[in-house]
Amino acid sequence: MSRLSLGKWLLPLYTALALIFLMVPIVYTFIFSFNDSLKSNITWRGFTLDKWLNVCAVQNGAVCQAFGNSLIIGLAATLIATTLGTMIAIALVRYRFRFRSSTSLLLFLPMATPEVVLGAGLAAQFLSLGVPKDMLTIILAHTMFCISFVVVTVKARVAGLDPALEEAGRDLYGSPGQVFARITFPLLLPGILAAALLSFALSFDDFIITNFNSGAVTTFPKYIYISASRGIPAEANVIASAVFILALVIVVTAQVSAAARAKRQARLG
Amino acid sequence: MPSGAFADRGADLELVGIQKRFPGFTAIEHLDLVIPAGSFFALLGPSGCGKTTTLRLVAGLEDPTGGRILIGGTDVTAQKAYQRPVNTVFQSYALFPHMTVLENVAFGLRRRQITDALGKAHEALRLVELDHLAARKPVQLSGGQQQRVALARAIVNRPALLLLDEPLGALDLKLRRQMQLELKTIQEEVGLTFLHVTHDQEEAMTMADTIAVMNKGRIEQLGAPEQLYELPRTAFVANFLGQSNLFTGPVVGETSTSIAVDIAGRSIVVPKTRSHRHAGDVTIGVRPEKLTLHRDKPVHDSGHNVMGPGRVTDVSFTGVSTQYLVSVPGVGVLIVFEQNRSFGPVEGEGDEVWVTWNVEHGFGLDDDPVAPDPRFVADTSTKSIAAQRRAALVTELEEA
């Protein structure tokens, strides 16, 4: 046995083990979304499609309600954070102003601060200001930490943008608005989209900060956390699996279309 | 002009007392310049001489610290870049990567709401022989093709003034020659005023009707290429535009038509009409290809200047000609170009030679005799400014 042949099977084995380790919880969740469960969803009681077909039936639609809340919060926070974050990123790269570096530093803080501290601190602020905790406070909280990620993502894209392109736009009779709409924005778009996806994923996922600032409103992660103590209904597995599959489909579609585009360009060039 | 019709012809460009200061340095001290309509004008100078800044001021991409810019008699100093009847071919081409070649070319026309923008864009692409690539993205083109797209994108707007910012710098020699010819042809065809910024003296001489040699934010000399070459006014021009043998010494004799300058004990004659100074210490010069080498001491002749004897210290064969370095005691090293009329070099290293030239070929400079300028100073071309800015931003980004 030479070392070479050892490497031949060791690496694939290691890779397979790592993948299995990562996939087990997901596969488990997916399989148990078909469990004909009663109150708890821990033991396998037989296959059924009921939970997939009647997702919202359980507990007067609490699962779907929570899912809907998470969607609304995610979309709102993403929209606000992406818009503001993009503007901040452009300003930080393009302009020199007072407190520029302190602004940069401040934007990094939410990423570096432990979520518990951030969530508790925000909750205290809302309390002392007398703001009632509801959807709005969650959206505000999510926007706050999403902005940091948007700024970091878009900033790199802005810094990589050749200033000569915008100058060429101005030189070719483009007013500042036209130059932004037709040159700057389209060229930043991949970065902005990446930032938006990241924001949505972070917001949709968030539990700790949400838990501090949500009051009576239940988001999807919060619902799962609460129900974990008395048994998560299979409907939660259904939604989680559906989200996972949707994400997978999006990623695969993007990859395939990118490959097709590269192929087409290669043929042209 | 921005919205509405094309400029029907090129326009005069006039710079009046232009000054430009950046934080930390002055790019242009005081610049007065008139470029007549329809001419091909080259601003020639080393990196950091202010030529690119001048171009950016005319384009409206920078604001002057002082002075006025007039195009076709209209003061455009206060106008924004997109309001000026000027287009630029950028050094980096700056083609929009997310648009096709056709969309790139039609961009300016569409912004000005000119009818049949796509038709006119196709026409411009045909002019640069790239219409068959109209549907491609810029990244799918070669450097030379990108350069031609950039040119088409600018001239399709029929600007009163076309600015060229070293657009041929990135091309290889053969392609550059070809593009030079094409540019010149297009300029004659469309009759635009071209302002071409370059550090390539050969390119400037081949293409331009008039050259302004810039150095340290000032114009050293302005004139037709032959005039600048044959009769440089300063040591900078004499050395930047081709090579020169320069000698400095006091004027020791004078006739009604010429002066005699003492160079290490030899009397060198220069016609008065070809010398800017006629008394005191003067710097005189002669181009290397005007010199002739002799193996025997030449017979004295009032029509020629003689220097020597000297020793050949280096011989380099360059194909068309051979370059000799001749060390003459007390004078220094002379550069001599000899045409290879027969085969190869005729002198060898270490040979004792005399150098002569026709009195009519010498020239006298206007400079105060000083040490030659350092050729390489701070680099401030557009590209390097952009690169510096970007580098600064990157470091900031990393620090943040």
Automatic annotation (TrEMBL), chain B:
Keywords attached to this entry: ATP-binding, Cell membrane, Membrane, Nucleotide-binding, Translocase, Transport
Domain named ABC transporter: residues: 13-241
Reaction it catalyzes: ATP + H2O + polyamine-[polyamine-binding protein]Side 1 = ADP + phosphate + polyamineSide 2 + [polyamine-binding protein]Side 1
GO molecular function: ABC-type polyamine transporter activity; ATP binding; ATP hydrolysis activity
An annotated GO cellular component: ATP-binding cassette (ABC) transporter complex
Enzyme class at the top of the EC tree: translocase
Pfam families (alphabetical): ABC_tran (PF00005), TOBE_2 (PF08402)
Protein EC: 7.6.2.11
Domain of life (superkingdom): Bacteria
Oligomer status and interactors: The complex is composed of two ATP-binding proteins (PotA), two transmembrane proteins (PotB and PotC) and a solute-binding protein (PotD).
Biological role stated in the UniProt entry: Part of the ABC transporter complex PotABCD involved in spermidine/putrescine import. Responsible for energy coupling to the transport system.
Entry similarity comment: Belongs to the ABC transporter superfamily. Spermidine/putrescine importer (TC 3.A.1.11.1) family.
Protein's name according to its UniProt entry: Spermidine/putrescine import ATP-binding protein PotA
